[in-house]
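Reopening this ticket.

The earlier resolution said the output was attached, but the attachment link was broken on my side. Pasting everything inline this time so it's all in one place.
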Amino acid sequence: MFLKAAINGGRTIAEHPRVPVTPDAIARDTWAASAAGAAVVHLHLRDDDGGQSIHPAELDRVLEAVRAVAPETSVGTTTGLWTVTGGHRERYECIRSWRLLPDFASVAYSEEGAEETARLIVERGIVLESAVWSMDDVPALLSSAVLDRNVRVLIEPQDEDAGDAVAACRAMAAALRAGGVRSPLLYHGEDATAWPVLRAAAEDGVQMRIGFEDGIDLPDGSVARDNVQLIEAALAEYRAVRERTAELG
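Inline output:
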């Protein structure tokens, strides 16, 4: 069982007061998520105005804080185009200028410049994980020159209906495997689809993800206290799914 903690994403403290946005808060939640059972931690940087960023100075501040309290934890960040205002060129220059490096970085193959970004990540010695959001993204990923360098492939359905999201995960997974992808797959949803997709990941034996980026509610609909409670709930859901699977033979 592999669980990634996505501790903040673009979520704000207006949505939940325990969303970590400062370097110190991100560092504390990284340590806590790892201690609670997360295999790796995915985090998003924030600028002084609270917006998402991949600027080298922001990355330095966060990684310095994280590695001071959780030096053994594998941490990664996004390279999403929404983190910059100048498009792919600005993103490329930010990544090229990173001084402190995350352990891994994510590239969405739905975005302009994804392949160039993925190659740069590999060239910089950062572990790559690529993401597909729909079946439309699959051909571009399968044609990537660095396909075999992915530590995992993220399947991130954009469907708002839970059943549609689960079906989309499985369709993309089948297409990726048919296309020759041998790296681990990870499913994750968002808000209303987060728990159904996580259960589908447990059923299918692929990697899972949870955290405030994906949702603030527990499986029973109540609001989670923090990222740790979400991780604990995810581990309980995984055990329940595996027990049901074993009972069914």
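Reporter confirms the inline version is readable. The first strand starts at residue 3 and ends at 6. The mean pLDDT is 97.
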